[in-house]
Design goal:
It is built from 11 helices and no strands. The chain is mainly α and about 240 residues long.
């Protein structure tokens, strides 16, 4: 199979690949995970449009999604530079940087699925030689960063699209769990765009040794979700 085309030097980047990779239809199983939101709904931490918007904004600015965006950026840069040692460091950290078993399952399962689908339909030399560089599993954000670098896509647009997809998945879960109507779901999506625009460039500049998070309620929710009596989602 031929490789997907890359925009020539000086041309505007073709972002259609990002629209495909980060759409709800891409077979990574994102719909199966709530990132601890299911527990937050049960405990009434998230119960309406306002609390949902605040929850998602906090995650984008201070939680797991922000850390994932940082890891995506570092995987992207290491792949673009051809720095295999740095790439292995990022992949190792990304696979371990999860506060709970369910969070780790979420990121590794989606990473596996993303790489499998992308290798099959969007082949690139970097993706083909990845097993020779790293014999472990690849976390989802790192997998997206690798694919974007392999196909010459711009970093900020990739981080923005990734964060927007994460927010959209959380809001979709809340529409079903709270429940919220489709109109409020769309309002929540619109409200997160400003946050994504602010956070994406910032995440791309965070040094790896400053990686961290402060959305502790979300981390605790992911731990308690494991023993939640009734569950629709895997995390």
């Amino acid at each position: 199979m031929s490789e997907a085309p890359v925009a020539p030097p000086g041309a505007s980047p073709d972002l259609l690949a990002l629209f495909v990779w980060l759409s709800p239809a891409y077979p990574v199983g994102a719909f199966a995970y709530s990132h601890g939101l299911e527990w937050a709904v049960e405990t009434q931490e998230v119960s309406d449009l306002a609390s949902l918007t605040n929850w998602v904004d906090d995650l984008l600015c201070h939680g797991g999604p922000f850390a994932d965006a940082v890891l995506l950026a570092h995987a992207f840069e290491a792949a673009r530079e051809g720095n295999d040692a740095r790439l292995r460091e990022v992949l190792e950290l990304a696979s371990a940087f999860a506060p709970s078993r369910e969070r780790q399952m979420e990121t590794l399962n989606q990473g596996d699925a993303f790489l499998s689908a992308t290798r099959a339909a969007w082949p690139a030399p970097l993706l083909e030689r990845l097993p020779a560089l790293w014999d472990g599993r690849v976390a989802y954000p790192a997998a997206v960063g690798l694919a974007a670098a392999a196909h010459g896509l711009p970093l900020t647009a990739t981080v923005s699209a990734f964060l927007n997809a994460v927010a959209a998945n959380l809001i979709s879960a809340a529409v079903r769990l709270v429940p919220l109507g489709q109109t409020d779901g769309n309002r929540a999506l619109a409200a997160t765009l400003a946050t994504v625009r602010e956070v994406a460039p910032r995440a791309a500049e965070v040094p790896l040794d400053q990686l961290g998070g402060a959305a502790l309620k979300s981390d605790i929710a992911s731990m308690r979700h494991e023993t939640q009596y009734t569950r629709l989602f895997r995390s």
